[in-house]
Design a protein that fits this description.
This protein has helices spanning 13-23, 40-52, 66-72, 85-91, 97-104, 116-127, 148-159, 179-183, 195-204, 209-218, 223-229, 235-238, 242-247, 259-277, 297-313, 320-335, 337-344, and strands spanning 29-33, 79-82, 136-140, 165-171, 186-189. It is of the alpha/beta class. Strands 2-3-4-1-5 form a 5-stranded parallel sheet, with helices on both faces. Helix 6 packs parallel to helix 7 (148-159). The longest helix has 19 residues, at 259-277. Mean pLDDT is 90; it is low at 1-8 and 340-345.
Length: 345
């Protein structure tokens, strides 16, 4: 399941409401910001669909015209989509001829950043006349994947765009964007849906009631991230058991996770343990899933720093198997530290 979420099926009601809200306002550049799983990509795409639609309404695009069809088949002459190449390929957006040729010839791997060459092509795209007469649109996602050079290539056009060009920058970490980029956009903070609304939508996507509830808990209430878990067989259902299994030293508890997702799962456990130690409620697990006694905040802070460090290399570990064993071993030592201290007394 794509991290960006799905584009077909039942549209999330909170996305539809936000689209209507934004379409009622004027602005040539929007920054959609908020944590992952809230639908930045879905909202950004639905906005540009409405802008380019031949028969739009206050609620959005018609979904039937030639413009809407052209976007569906990734061939709209007036839409430029900027993403890291790995995500472009995952979501079916075509790369430039040169980029595709370089990758096909194995001259380089698909980029995980938005390349400056692609941004320069987008700037040139904005200067050309609209092919369909509805203006031009540029969708950038995730915008935080622009490096400083790429972002600076966008600045001038963002500040003084051609009369018919509009931009949507969708971000899951807007604090990483250059202040000069943020200042040139109208900011919109994504709506966080209520749990019953999110659970009902997940069920409309084919999840059972129990799986939807488990996935939402694991995702901290973020429906897009919860939907992504639906593609990982058994992960949502086994989520509640993860802290107990790790406390027993069961390395297999992380078998359903790749290194990146394993670090993220451990960070969620650490977050909830720190919340309990501070007298707050956990977010990703129920209290019954976690150790009964609050653990040392100093120990948890050390573990949190270690996990941040591990996240920096999780994409390309020297040895994935050894890394997973080390992560599980460290998790066990933390989760059983309270028990060891009580036994010593």
């Amino acid at each position: 399941m794509s991290k960006a979420g799905i584009e077909s099926g039942t549209e999330a009601p909170w996305i539809a409401a936000q689209r209507s809200q934004l379409l009622a306002q004027r602005g040539h550049a929007w920054l959609l910001q908020g944590p992952s799983g809230l639908g930045q990509y879905a909202l950004g795409l639905s906005l540009v669909r409405a802008w380019l639609c031949e028969q739009p309404s206050a609620q959005g695009a018609c979904g039937q015209c030639a413009s809407c069809h052209a976007i569906d088949v990734r061939a709209h002459a007036d839409l430029c989509v900027l993403m890291p190449e790995v995500q472009m390929m995952e979501l079916g957006w075509p790369l430039s001829e040169k980029a595709q040729a370089d990758i096909d010839d194995k001259k380089r791997k698909p980029s995980k950043e938005i390349r400056v060459d692609a941004m320069r092509d987008a700037v040139e795209f904005c200067q050309r006349t609209s092919a369909r007469g509805r203006g031009k649109a540029v969708l950038v996602y995730p915008a935080e994947q622009m490096n400083a050079i790429t972002a600076n290539a966008l600045l001038k056009t963002l500040e003084e765009p051609p009369g018919d060009a509009r931009f949507v920058l969708a971000s899951e970490a807007s604090h990483l964007l250059l202040p000069t980029i943020r200042s040139r956009c109208l900011a919109h903070t994504m709506t966080w849906p209520a749990v019953p609304e999110a659970a009902q939508w997940l069920q409309s996507q084919g999840m059972s009631e129990a799986d939807a509830a488990a996935a939402l808990q694991a995702a901290g209430g973020r429906p897009g991230d919860a939907l992504r878990m639906a593609g990982d067989a058994g992960r949502a259902a086994a989520w509640a058991q993860l802290p107990r299994q790790l406390a027993k030293g069961d390395v297999a508890a992380l078998a359903a996770f790749g290194p990146v997702d394993a670090v993220e799962a451990l960070q969620k456990i650490c977050h909830d343990l720190m919340a309990l130690a501070g007298g707050a409620s956990p977010r990703y697990f129920s209290p019954a899933d976690l150790p009964g006694k609050p653990l040392s905040m100093m120990l948890l802070a050390d573990w949190s720093r270690e996990l941040v460090q591990a996240a920096r290399t999780a994409d390309h570990p020297f040895n994935a198997g050894l890394m997973m064993e080390a992560l599980a071993s460290r998790a066990r030592s933390v989760l059983t530290s309270g028990k060891s201290a009580r036994a010593a007394r």
